[in-house]
Amino acid sequence: MRKLPFTSSRARDRAKEYFVLLTLGFTIAVVFGAITALTASQRSLGIFESIGRSIAGKIDTQDRFHTFLSIYFNNLGVATSAYALGVLFGIVPWLIVMVNGFILGLVVALVISQGLMSPVQALLAIVPHGVFEIPAILLSATAGILLYRGTLKKEGLDLVYSSLRLYALSAGLLLLAAFIEAFVTPRVAGL
């Protein structure tokens, strides 16, 4: 039986390599976001308020299903951008990962340092859905880089096929993450 092109060891190795590098970049960005929040708190509060206004329009505390759909389509839009715009020399996936990491670090450090949440409550507000959402965004960014490498760099269709699989996996994980974020996280974190 012939192996399908998206199961090549080369594609898997490339995907693992980019996923690890993107995870490292995300982690560094989280740290820089936290440092920024703690060292430039007034400027960070302005960013935080802007993010809060953006999120407030998407959350409906009375209708969790609407919130679930809103979260899912917002995150799917981010994942799709990381994937589809990966063809722009593989840069956009990196930007999306770094910006999201920076914002996460900034927001968590701010809500804790300003006394809006305890460290435990902040973790409970992120971890239940974050264990699916963060890897999903990293997978879509990995897929975007593979798409670029397989098309513009002409490194092979196996990379393109692998990118499609990773993007589909990312979309599925984001669905699960959105469900948890809308229905489980508020109860667990006491929000």
Automatic annotation (TrEMBL):
Pfam families: SpoIIM. It comes from the Archaea. Keywords: Membrane, Transmembrane, Transmembrane helix. The keyword Coiled coil does not apply. InterPro entries: SpoIIM-like. The chain crosses the membrane at residues 20-40, 82-111, 123-146, 166-184. PANTHER family: SLR1478 PROTEIN. This is Stage II sporulation protein M. It comes from Thermococcus waiotapuensis.
